[in-house]
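dumping this here before i forget
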Amino acid sequence: MSITERVKEQIRLKKGKPIPAHVNFFYCFGGFSLFLIILQLVSGIFMLFFYTPEPDKALQSIAHLSNEVPLGWLFRNLHRWSSTFLLATVLSHMFIVFYLKAYQSPRQLTWLSGVFQLLMVFLLLVTGIILPWDWRSYWSFAIWADYVGTWAGGEILKNLLLDNFTLNLAYFVHILVIPLILAASLFFHFRMVKRFGISQPL
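structure:
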């Protein structure tokens, strides 16, 4: 069986699965979130080829991408705005799950993995804001570092952040560390959804 035939067979099997009668538009925010994550991945990979994670070159490389690279402005804006929408859809998804009490047994692990993914999406947003290294990036980092310092024992973590921060490190965390953790969490999340369903078994 060829790859095309396998894909068609998988699509046919998926389309043949019944949709529970109680499912409506408000159950779609998880799917919206996944679509935006894929959009982030595609646009981010494109931007990798043009971004330079050096303090004196970062903003220039983004300006070059936006103004001189064909369709660079489109990919940059897709990446920037879809990240904001992603945070909104994940929050909406969590609120709906909480409202419907779909976090209750036996779906506790599904809920906890979703909360963890919200944290990862938030960290992606924070590290992404830092990467252009303009005045907004600088003050965003300063504000978050100060905020971490207000936590119990946060001064130690704040000092670690300030002493070890480099743009290269923020870039590495943004494009590799957090995405890998998020991918593993998504895989686990989908396994739990497949096993236990959304608010009743699928």
